[in-house]
User: What shape does this take?
Amino acid sequence: MMRKNLGLALLVLLSLGISSCGQESSIKESSSSASSSSDSFSSIVDSSSVSTSVDKGTLSIPLTHLPLGFERKLTIEYSKPEYASQLTFNIANEAICSITDDGVVTGLKVGQTLVNASNADFDCDFYVSVDTDQFAAKVARRFSSYTAASYPEDHRTLFMGDSFFDTDEFFTNFNSFYSGYNVFSMGISATTADDWYYYSQKLVYPFEPENVVIHIGTNDINDDKCTTNETEERLVRLFESIHTNLPSTKIFYFGIEPSNAFKGNVSEDKRVNELTKTYCSTNSSFMTYLDSPSAFTKEDGTADTSLLRADGLHPLLTSYHIYTELLGTKLTLTELPKSVTDKSFEQLNDSSLNWLSYTPKSDSLTITGSTSCVNSRSFYCLYDDQAYQGNIAITGHLDFTATKNFGFAEIFVSQGMKDWASDNTLQIIYQNQGSEATPLYDTYWWSTNNSIKKIFESQVAQADSGFNFKLVVYNGTAYFYYKNQNYITQTVLKNPCVAFGAENGTLTVSSLAIQTNDDEITQLIPQN
Assistant: This one.
C-alpha cells in the first residue's frame, strides 16, 4: 500500500505543468517521459487515477517604461488567453514603483527594478523603468494656471497636444480666438501621443471636460521615428484611454499636416491620417476627425509653405484660423460669465520667460526691478489665464523711483513676451538719465523697425517723476498718450501682448483701468 501511494505522488508531481515568461515550463515539457515512467508502475497503479498535463501556453510582460509620478496599465500577454488568471506581483525594489492587483503600475522614483509576476500556472520576470519627466515643470504650470483661473465646471473645452497648440511658443494668439469662452489650451511643445497618455491623467481627466481638442502625432513620427502602425497604436491607445476615463467627452482630432522640414515623412503622415480617419469613423459616437492636412497641402501633395513659419513645420500665426474655423464647423463653444473674463496684470512663475509670482487683480500695480540684467528683469504681463493678446485700452498714473543709475520703467507692446526686441514692437521707456542721488527722468519711445527715439521731455525734475498715460492698441496700431496731451502712433502686429516692466527701480501704476471691448476702445482712438 505504501508503494502504491508513493507511485501516485510521483505521478502527480510529474504531471504538473508550470509556464514561465515567454516559454513553456520544463516540467510540463517532460510530461512524455513521465508517461513512459508511469508504465513501470502500471502493475500497481490504477490507470483511471493518472492525471493528463494541460498545455496552458505562456505568459510574457515586456519592459515597461513610464514617467515619474504617472501610472499605466501593464501589457500582460498570454499566448492562450483562455488560461489568463490573477497574478501576484513581487517588486525587487519597491521604492521604484507600485503595482496594483489588476496590473496598474505607478512610478515612485526614477530608476529600474525587476518584477516577478506569478500564480499557480505561470511565472514571469520583467522590468519596470521609471524615467525623469522632461516636461514636469510645464505640466505643473499648465495645471496651476488652469486651476487658478476657476473656469466653470460645466461645458469645458480643453485643447491638448504638441507645439501646434502650445500657447507660449506657437499658438500665441490663442486668446484672440477664444478669450471669453470656457476654453483653455494645455499644449506642450515636443510632446508625443505616448506622453499625453500620461499627461492626460493630470491635465485632462481631473477637469472632466465636455470636449477635448487634440493635435498630436507629428513628433511620434519625426522625433521618435515610429512606423505607421506604431504611431497609430499610440494614437488609438490615447483615444481609448480618454474615452475610458471620460466616456461622455467628445474628442476632436486634427490630422498630421505635411511639413517642409520632414519631407521624407509625408507619405507616412498620410497613411497615419487615413488609419485615424477610419478609426474616427468607426467610433463616431465620441470621435471627430478634422482634416487640417488638406488645408496645408498643395495640389502636388507637398506642404504649402506659404502657410508655415520659416522652420517649415509650424503654422504661421495668420494660419491658425484654419484650425479654429474647422473646429467651429463641428463644435459650438460655451461663453464664460462676464466676471470670469476680467483681465489682470500678473507675474508668472516661468524662469524661461523671466516672470515671477502671481499678483491679485487690482486697480494698482507695483513692480520692483532689482537687477540690471535684461534677461531677468521683472515683467508683468496682461494675463487672462494665458497672456492676453488682442485689442485693448489701458489708462492709469505711472510713478517710478530709480534705485541705481539708468534705472527705468517701461510699457511694452509686442507679439510675444520673448520678442521684446523684435520688429513691430513698441516700448515706452521712462528712464533715469542722471545719478542715484540726482535723478533726471525723461521719456522716449523705441521701435526696432527704425530705431527712432522721440524725446518727450528731458531733464525733468525729480518731483515730476510720474505722469498720467493712456495706451490704445487696436487692429495693429498702438497709440500712446503722454500726460494726456501728447501721443505717438506705432504699427504693431495684430493681437500683441501688453506688459509693464521695471529695472533698477520701483514702478507703481495707480488708477489702473482696462478695456477690451472694441466699441469702448474705438472711442479712445485719436481722431486727428
